[in-house]
Design goal:
With 142 residues, the protein is an all-alpha fold. It has one helix at 2-141. The protein is rod-shaped, with a radius of gyration of 60 Å. The chain contains one helix and no strands. Helix content is 99%, strand content 0%. It has one domain (1-107).
Length: 142
């Protein structure tokens, strides 16, 4: 009897406990599998983020290199502009010298024209004096 019934009940209780433990172990394994999958997903995301940040860094590096090249070009253009400005200033100085020389030539030409006019006036006076002398000589020959 009674002992056998209790043994059966105890055995059934132990079987139920083992079944419950198996269920809980399966649930724990499922949770661990899900957590492992989540960890794997997190690892993949971290790897992708690392790759993306590497690409961003490379892009920034290339951009900085381009900015450096642009800055060098700007400096070269600035130097070229300074050279052009110097050349323009030199041309302006030569133009001023040419203008001054032209003004001097013009003044000299005007002085020569005035001297030629004086020589012409003297020549006319000499011509009149010669005519007067010829008339006087003709008057005395008569």
């Amino acid at each position: 009897g009674k002992l056998a019934d209790q043994s059966i009940q105890s055995a059934n209780l132990i079987v139920n406990l083992i079944a419950n433990m198996n269920t809980r172990i399966e649930q724990a394994v499922n949770v661990m599998d899900k957590n492992t999958q989540r960890a794997e997903n997190g690892k993949n995301l971290a790897t992708k983020a690392t790759i993306t940040f590497g690409e961003i860094f490379d892009s920034l590096h290339a951009t900085l290199t381009q900015i450096g090249l642009i800055a060098n070009s700007a400096q070269e253009m600035s130097k070229s502009n300074a050279d052009v400005t110097d050349a323009i200033e030199a041309i302006a100085a030569i133009s001023e010298e040419t203008t001054a020389s032209t003004e001097e030539v013009t003044a000299t030409t005007e002085e020569q024209n005035a001297a030629i006019q004086q020589v012409n006036a003297l020549a006319e006076n000499l011509s009149q004096i010669a005519d007067n002398l010829n008339q006087s000589v003709a008057f005395f020959r008569l």
